[in-house]
Amino acid sequence: MNRRTFNTKLSQGIAGTALLSGIPLACAMGGAQNKKKLGIALVGLGSYSTYQLAPGLQDAEHCYLAGIVTGTPEKEKVWMEKYGIPKENVYNYENFDSIAKNDSIDIVYVVLPNSMHADFSIRAARAGKHVICEKPMAMNVEECDAIIDACKKSGVKLSVGYRMQSDPYTNEIKRLVSEKPFGKVMYVSSDAGYISRGNPEQWRLDRSLSGGGALMNMGVYSVQSNIYGVGLNPISISAQEFSTRPEYFKDTDESITAQMEFPDGTVGHMFTSHNASANRLFVSFEKGWVELNPCHSYGPISGRTSEGNEIKYPHQSQQKVQMDDFAKHILMGTPNVAPGEMGKRDMIIVEAIYKSIAEGGKRMPLDLGDMGIVKKNI
Amino acid sequence: MNRRTFNTKLSQGIAGTALLSGIPLACAMGGAQNKKKLGIALVGLGSYSTYQLAPGLQDAEHCYLAGIVTGTPEKEKVWMEKYGIPKENVYNYENFDSIAKNDSIDIVYVVLPNSMHADFSIRAARAGKHVICEKPMAMNVEECDAIIDACKKSGVKLSVGYRMQSDPYTNEIKRLVSEKPFGKVMYVSSDAGYISRGNPEQWRLDRSLSGGGALMNMGVYSVQSNIYGVGLNPISISAQEFSTRPEYFKDTDESITAQMEFPDGTVGHMFTSHNASANRLFVSFEKGWVELNPCHSYGPISGRTSEGNEIKYPHQSQQKVQMDDFAKHILMGTPNVAPGEMGKRDMIIVEAIYKSIAEGGKRMPLDLGDMGIVKKNI
Fold first, then answer.
1. What pLDDT band is residue A375 in, cutting at 50, 70 and 90?
2. SS3 A12
3. Which residues in B lie closer than 8 A to residue A259 (C-beta atoms)?
4. What does the alpha-carbon distance between residue B53 and residue B134 come to, in Å, rounded to a whole number?
5. Of A100, A210, B13, B121, which sits most exposed with the smallest number of CB within 10 A?
6. Model ipTM over 0.95
């Protein structure tokens, strides 16, 4: 056991005691959180891990790239060399469960195709690791429940890979919504889409691997930004599907529009597409508006208000901030800004959207309460 | 007959001959069009006539405020004095038909509540006057047909009060759509709404006078901008209604969302409301986007593109440009940028929206062909 591993175990022990005794974690730990970085293992080394997560982890303050899990042996050596990952922290999909015995891995980040999220998140939880499950959380609500249950049973933390929840632009929207400098929200409109022209065999276009098309991929961003753009969960939703390139989008949705009704009367519109570029959030208040465009991309995000003010923050890796937020949640007891219940809520909405489409655009009631709403952010 | 009246008759005579003989009107008339202004009579002296049309006419180049038609006797003197209108050009709703004998009135602009559009437009046509009918054109498609027929029978020109059709920002959108510097349009999104908090007894909130709420008032702008944002008519539409203040919006729609399907695969979203402020047009192309915000207000309009360019034109009265465009159409044979068929088309769409709402959001097919599309603008 090296010094870092020792510190990890130590701080986890303190954290556990603090939580049980009701003492605020940050107090119980004193300055300990500054000395500890949690080890993350990335499961699935596709482009998101390669170009976003691994680089983001290089700058992270509270976590680091400790291990990898890959089904492609030739990637092992490349990643080990590039990121100084020791051989004992490298796993494949078969021996993955033995990660339970590896104390240098604190968090498992599942970055696999959607159909594999539940399996690997549950196995990670059973291995005693905290879990980040990439969005969309799973193929359906049932799988979300299974992931949440597994994490609860194992006493590990669970987060969904909603990088936007940690983004300062998102949090400025939340602040405007909750502090009401422009009054109450009356209308929210959110678009998330891009034109897919790549390999038609990619897993995102294969329903058995993705669970759905634009809605599962980009649509959850629109669902999310509509919700934090109002600060409430919707009470009903209706939706429509549009298809113009069926030869390319063989069995996944190409474009979807949906309309949300919120309990305070706010009307929500969302659009998601694999056949049109759109990347916006517009929130109309009683006395003004705020717009982000781009809104859901890796940044830099750009925002403005009806008063002519620019919303601008220094650009940093959203993934770095997201993973640091989760590490801080584990280490210091700060809020989990993207808990499993949020991912499950969004999957309930996704299922309602597909059901509405199947029923010719019928308005589907939603009974979500406060599910997935995180009141106080970091 | 004074000199101006004589010139009017002369130019109308030449115009008639030119049209019959197929000679381009502007050639046949030589420089005559520069010397002639058409006389407009405003029917209904509410706020739109008072604060938009009459001031706009002061700067118009091809028409002028020649007469008024009002049901409020005390307004007669005020307007006569303010705008130098002779007594013989002042009418009330009862003696309005005698305007047929008044050679100084060339155009009648009907600015009455929607329920009176058809009646006065038809009476104006029968009186031999060219007609501008304020938007929405009428209460329903049947009335639109009656207006169009009456104008055809009387051989007079007909235009709908679509000020945006003459606006340079609209025409820049049309240029980007047709010249395709950003490629083909893939998605269009248009919002038009404001928060109504005024007198609940106003005619706009009385279905018997307005024919409908937000959709009839602001919604036609969204319909229009979705269409010129694509350059085609939609082939289907679905719609949803949202109601949160039924005590105020007793029998008119408060907020409506609608989704349009275009023959080239473009997806259209529109939102209109009397309970939320939104005033935008977003057009997403293959290789970029353009946005107007504000888009549908009296100006100044403001636009920008994905390349960071501002779209900016010197502000001028939209109503002045609109009425000048119609006068030029009459005088010089330039295109009628907002013909009656455009107003009828939009009313077909409005009726389909209400029908979709009544049928729970069902997608309604539309068979519009090129109806109302003006290919070449001034």
1. confident
2. helix
3. 240, 242, 257
4. 11
5. B13
6. no
A28 has which bridge partners?
none
Model pLDDT for residues A38-51, shown as the tens digit of each residue: 999 999 999 999 99
In the structure encoding, which two tokens stand for residue A338, read together? Answer: 């993207």
Share of chain A above pLDDT 90, in %: 89
* Cα–Cα dist A7/A292, whole Å: 41
A284 vs B278, B360, B363: nearest CB:
B278
- Between B191, B259, B265, which is nearest A240 by CB? B259
Structure tokens at B156: 């007079």
| Cα→Cα distances A212→A91, A109, A139, A249, Å | 29, 22, 8, 10
Task: Label residue B372 left, alpha or beta by phi (over 0 means left) and psi (-120 to 50 means alpha).
Answer: left
Following DSSP, what letter does each residue of B285-331 receive, concatenated?
Answer: ETTEEEEESS-SSSS---EEETTSPEE------HHHHHHHHHHHHHH
| Phi, psi (deg, nearest 5) at residue A83 | -115, 10
**Mean pLDDT of the B237-261 span:** 97
> Is it the case that residue A3 has pLDDT exceeding 80?
no
Sort out which chain B residues have CB atoms less than 8 A from A275's CB and list them: 186, 265
Of all residues in chain A, the one with the smallest CA distance to B269 is A257
Instruction: Tell me if A26 sits within 8 A of A33, measured CB to CB.
Output: yes
Q: Which domains does chain A have, with CATH numbers?
A: 37-161 (3.40.50.720), 164-314+340-365 (3.30.360.10)
Instruction: Tell which A residues from 345 to 374 touch B, by Cβ distance under 8 Å.
Output: 360-363
Average the pLDDT over B52-77 and give the result: 98
Mean residue pLDDT across chain A: 92
Is residue A131 within 8 Å of residue A124, measured between CB atoms?
yes
- For chain B, helix (H) and strand (E) counts, in that order, are 13, 15
Q: Is B17 on the interface with A (CB under 8 A)?
A: no
Q: Which chain A positions have a beta carbon within 8 Å of B193's beta carbon? A: 187
pLDDT digits (tens, 9 = 90+) for A110-141: 999 999 999 999 999 999 999 999 999 999 99
Whether B282 has its CB under 8 Å from any CB of chain A: the answer is yes
Average pLDDT over residues A8-14: 38
What is the distance in angstroms between the CA of the first residue and the CA of the last residue of chain A?
33
The dihedral formed by the CA atoms of B171, B175, B176 and B180, expressed in degrees to the nearest 10: 160
Our separate counts of H helices and E strands in chain A read 13, 15
From the number of C-beta atoms within 10 Å of its C-beta (0-12, 13-18, 19+), residue A47 rates as exposed
Tell me: the pLDDT tens digits for B4-47? Answer: 333 333 334 333 333 433 334 433 343 344 458 999 999 999 99
| Furthest-apart CA atoms within chain B: distance in Å | 61
Is B3's pLDDT higher than 50?
A: no
Q: Is the four-CA dihedral B356, B359, B361, B367 of positive or negative sign?
A: negative
Residue whose tokens read 């080990």: A80
Nearest to B273 among A187, A191, A278 (CB): A187
- Spatial separation of the C-alpha atoms in residues B356 and A136, rounded to whole Å: 32
Rounded to whole angstroms, the Cα distance separating A149 from A130 reads: 13
Residues B326, A215: Cα–Cα separation, whole Å: 46
Vertex B168: Cα angle to B164 and B173 (nearest 5): 80
DSSP structure class, residue B332: H
Q: How far apart are the first and last CA of chain B?
A: 33
* pLDDT score of A376: 61
